[in-house]
């Protein structure tokens, strides 16, 4: 692979203008595609084959498309202890309902004071109107949503409190481009400028990463016109693509500067950098891609889609790093070095390594204490992980209209009204059997109210609304869903299904929770095999895997403490606290796995190389550490800044994920890779690099291109002659 990448780097330098134009054409083409072919993003989650999803499909067939339309609840409350049924207040309620019925896209808006189907609280202080649209939630336009909000705002006043909640009020897109994200990019630029000592080189590094991100994001946007994509998919791809794009370019640029300082001509320095550091980039990128694509093992379509989209962005980032970055470096040439270094090729290849040498010396000499402190610190931070809860129900931001509506519903009607269950009795025998189903459900614990069965016109399906006593996220509600499924059997010519937003959330969360251990075993196994191949050792991979597990535990523990328990929630601008979104843990595990393996490979491969050249075990750790640690620290700082930039202003879906990735990178780079790994390898001594004879047949994976460095490329002379001729 190193030889192939070496040639690819040469080709990029020789045809740098063509390479740059090709990438520019790709950006423009995808931009046109995104502008003309893009579709709407969805903000709902479901899994085909689950009982709740099957029931929703049946409902749409039996009751028409209106049953699948998005809904909103407009909640009205009489102020000052008054009654919603008082004449004056009732008149205002009627006016609000009349306005709601005339809204664009609205099929119906129920009158809560209708004697035939009232929706008034028991103390008659509040009521709600159910507003139904003719399309699903993701298809509601911003103008339609704004029209609903306008009616709510103008109707609310001293005489009547009006708030709105429900899926129709929730935006389907993920916000990007806020001040936090921009600040993260600025921090990355500053770190690059300090690392390189050149603003031009830093800008080039950032520009190539942005080009890769643009292609990935535009490609996803174009694809949305052909299939339903989750609203969080592009923001996740952008966040990850930007972070790894900057880091991968950093590794290659850093190696390029080292080769220039050794006295190599620009074309050969570029080619050798792509062949060596580029090999590590490809290996690291492949690891991340496999981890993200591996999300498909969960068997959940929307998770597979998110993983593949993010993996495609990583592939683009790798391709940019090994083609576009070399082309830019060929154009920058010796200007990549400070002026003084351009005239003296024997300058030290890396500056300011005294700190890292001293740090490595301290960690390796106090290795037992260092390892104990590092492990204990992360183990304590990981404690909240064992109480982590997940849900698919997105909570409204505190102080928003949705949150106020939820409070009124919970206080006046009961917490169960916020998440009613729908029981579908399907089949020709459903009208007769539905009465029996209603009686059985009424006898179950945690049931507040069971509505009268509502058959369809064809008489082959019946709907029953069930109001639990507990809220949608409560364990009692989850137990009720399982109780209905277990205790209420199918009848003659009638099948019973439990669905509704709460049931869908329970089904998806359960599926994700079951998939997480399987996925964790997959990525841990992959990490072990990869590290065995790279380092031809058994104990070093064990150290790497255990370090990864500590990183995951600490990241999820800290995220649970902040976003579920509410610790320091104000610092990260967490507008809501409670159970984490169900898909967050498995996504966090996948991404952190890939990134942790990146740093393990870049750091330990230098130690392995030093040991292979005859250094004693402790000296090999110190030598490899001082060579790789500066770049790893810079890369981790950049990645932390990028991920952290999505926390302050990110939406409720992406915020915990971005926080976990940022804090996970911090723990992995500064605690695991900078303390625990060198301490553990120093403790193991020569046995760290031991490989049993029966595994000697394993292929050697040269991720650093060491073999390429030891030989003079056959075309080196031709390269230099070509450069002079040019």
From TrEMBL:
Keywords: Cell membrane, Membrane, Transmembrane, Transmembrane helix. InterPro entries: MMPL_dom (IPR004869), Mycobact_MmpL (IPR050545), SSD (IPR000731). It is a multi-pass membrane protein. Pfam families: MMPL. The keyword Ion transport does not apply. It comes from the Bacteria. PROSITE patterns: SSD. The keyword Cell membrane applies. It is found in: Cell membrane. Belongs to the resistance-nodulation-cell division (RND) (TC 2.A.6) family. MmpL subfamily. PANTHER family: MEMBRANE PROTEIN MJ1562-RELATED, MEMBRANE PROTEIN SCO6666-RELATED. This is MMPL family transporter.
């Amino acid at each position: 692979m190193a030889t192939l990448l070496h040639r690819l780097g040469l080709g990029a330098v020789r045809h740098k203008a063509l390479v740059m134009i090709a990438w520019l054409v790709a950006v423009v083409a995808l931009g046109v595609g995104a502008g003309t072919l893009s579709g709407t993003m969805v903000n709902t989650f479901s899994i085909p084959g689950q009982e709740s999803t099957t029931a929703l499909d049946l409902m749409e067939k039996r009751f028409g498309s209106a049953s699948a339309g998005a809904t909103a609840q407009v909640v009205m409350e009489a102020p000052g202890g008054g009654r919603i049924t008082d004449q004056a207040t009732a008149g205002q309620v009627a006016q609000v309902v009349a306005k709601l019925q005339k809204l664009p896209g609205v099929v119906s808006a129920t009158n809560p004071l209708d004697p035939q189907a009232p929706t008034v609280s028991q103390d008659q202080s509040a009521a709600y109107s159910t507003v139904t649209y003719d399309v699903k939630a993701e298809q509601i336009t911003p103008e339609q949503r704004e029209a609903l909000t306008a009616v709510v705002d103008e109707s609310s006043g001293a005489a009547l409190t009006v708030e709105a909640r429900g899926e129709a009020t929730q935006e389907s897109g993920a916000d990007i481009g806020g001040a936090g994200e921009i600040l993260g990019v600025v921090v990355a630029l500053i770190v690059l400028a300090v690392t390189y000592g050149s603003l031009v080189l830093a800008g080039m590094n950032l520009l190539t990463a942005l080009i890769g991100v643009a292609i990935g994001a535009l490609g996803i946007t174009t694809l949305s016109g052909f299939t339903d994509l989750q609203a969080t998919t592009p923001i996740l791809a952008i966040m990850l693509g930007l972070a790894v794009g900057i880091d991968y370019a950093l590794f290659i640029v850093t190696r390029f500067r080292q080769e220039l300082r050794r006295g190599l001509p620009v074309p050969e320095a570029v080619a050798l950098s792509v062949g060596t550091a580029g090999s590590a980039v490809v290996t690291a990128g492949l690891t991340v891609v496999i981890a993200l694509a591996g999300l498909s093992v969960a068997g959940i379509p929307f998770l597979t889609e998110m993983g593949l989209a993010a993996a495609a962005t990583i592939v683009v980032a790798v391709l940019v790093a090994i083609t576009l970055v070399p082309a830019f470096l060929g154009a920058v040439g010796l200007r990549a070095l400070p002026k003084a270094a351009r005239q003296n090729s024997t300058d030290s290849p890396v500056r300011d390594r005294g700190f890292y040498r001293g740090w490595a010396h301290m960690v390796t000499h106090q290795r037992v204490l260092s390892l104990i402190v590092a492990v204990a610190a992360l183990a304590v931070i990981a404690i909240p992980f064992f109480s982590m809860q997940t849900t698919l129900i997105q909570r409204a931001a505190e102080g928003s209209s949705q949150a106020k509506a939820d409070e009124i519903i919970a206080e006046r009607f009961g917490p169960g009204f916020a998440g009613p269950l729908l029981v579908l009795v399907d089949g020709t025998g459903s009208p007769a059997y539905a009465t029996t189903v209603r009686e059985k459900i009424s006898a179950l614990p945690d049931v507040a109210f069971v509505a009268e069965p509502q058959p369809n016109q064809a008489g082959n399906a019946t709907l029953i609304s069930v109001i639990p006593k507990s809220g949608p996220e409560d364990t009692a509600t989850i137990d009720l869903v399982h109780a209905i499924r277990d205790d209420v059997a199918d009848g003659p010519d009638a099948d019973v299904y439990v669905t509704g937003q709460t049931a869908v959330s329970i089904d998806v969360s359960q599926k994700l929770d079951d998939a997480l251990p399987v996925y964790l075993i997959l990525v841990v196994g992959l990490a072990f095999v990869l590290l065995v191949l790279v380092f031809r050792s058994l104990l070093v991979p064990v150290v790497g895997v255990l370090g990864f597990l500590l990183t995951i535990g600490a990241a999820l523990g800290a995220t649970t403490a902040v976003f579920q328990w509410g610790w320091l929630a104000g610092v990260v601008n967490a507008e809501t606290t409670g159970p984490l979104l169900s898909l967050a843990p498995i996504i966090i595990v996948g991404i952190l796995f890939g990134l942790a393996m990146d740093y393990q490979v870049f750091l330990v491969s230098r130690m392995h190389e030093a040991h292979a050249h005859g250094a004693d075990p402790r000296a090999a750790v110190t030598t490899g550490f001082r060579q790789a640690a500066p770049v790893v620290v810079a890369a981790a700082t950049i990645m932390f800044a990028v991920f952290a930039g999505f926390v302050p202003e990110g939406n409720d879906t992406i915020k915990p994920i971005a926080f976990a990735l940022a804090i996970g990178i911090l723990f992995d780079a500064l605690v695991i890779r900078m303390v625990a790994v060198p301490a553990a390898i120093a403790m193991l001594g020569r046995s760290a690099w031991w490989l049993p004879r029966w595994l000697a047949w394993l292929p050697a994976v040269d991720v650093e291109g060491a073999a390429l460095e030891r030989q003079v490329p056959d075309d080196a002379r031709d390269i230099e002659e070509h450069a002079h001729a040019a």
